Amino acid sequence: xxxxxxxxxxxxxxxxxxxxxxxxxxxxxxxxxxxxxxxxxxxxxxxxxxxxxxxxxxxxxxxxxxxxxxxxxxxxxxxxxxxxxxxxxxxxxxxxxxxxxxxxxxxxxxxxxxxxxxxxx
Length: 121
Hints:
The chain has 121 residues and is mainly α. It has helices at 2-16, 21-24, 34-44, 57-79, 83-110.
């Protein structure tokens, strides 16, 4: 019963806003999944230049791992059959990006190089 209560206002808002029939029927073609939004935030945090300008094995491994994660995301999204598969793909992608970034930063810190941080305020 609760579900129908929540869906009815959403459909009413879609109709009032003049949304296309697909959106009125409950499909969210234009909406971004929460997992995708998180993954996009993680993409924005991808390190674009090596820490301290040191291009070593760790840097190249990091870049390679990011490329693999992007290829795996594309593959997972192609094979996705429903919204849950898409959510899993985006969630896994965000996790991989976060993991690879933190692992690279920690390994570089172990070697005595720290990631620069600028605080404005």
